[in-house]
Amino acid sequence: MQGKFGLAPIFAGIVDLPQINRYLKTLNALLLFASVSACATAPDDAGAIFTAPDKFEFYNCEQLETRMRNLMAREKELRALIGKASQSPVGSVIAVAAYRTEYLQTRNDLKVISEWRVTKNCSIQSGWLSDRSMW
Fold it and tell me: Can you give the pLDDT at residue 37?
């Protein structure tokens, strides 16, 4: 013989299924929050898994310079977007989900480009440098 919720009559007064459902929903929400917050604490070198070390091997110095300038602009843009999104609690989750991976990849690409520029002996082309010496 079964009771109201398909349980034996002996458990009908002890088990409150709506309360158990609330507990399960709360537990699910906590597990989701824990998994998202674990992503938010990813190390800064996590972008290394997205960039092959030889990705820029066949770029010449001019192409490396152009790519580096584009990536620096994108990194600045992503940093601003993450900062803007992080102003609200929900925005922090959105920032992690939407921008963090690309930001880490961009930073790692910049690191790899810098290494290739050293390997290829590329000169530093900057508006801050001049050909004049101090003496």
Answer: 58
What residues contact 113, with CB distance under 8 A and at least 6 apart? 56, 64, 67, 68, 71
**pLDDT tens-digit profile of 89-113?**
888 888 888 888 899 999 999 999 9
Q: How far apart are the first and last CA of the chain?
A: 102
Instruction: Answer yes or no: are the C-beta atoms of 3 and 9 closer than 8 Å.
Output: yes
Residues 117 and 60: beta-carbon distance below 8 Å: no
Burial of 68 per CB tally in 10 Å (0-12, 13-18, 19+):
buried
Average model confidence (pLDDT) across the chain: 76
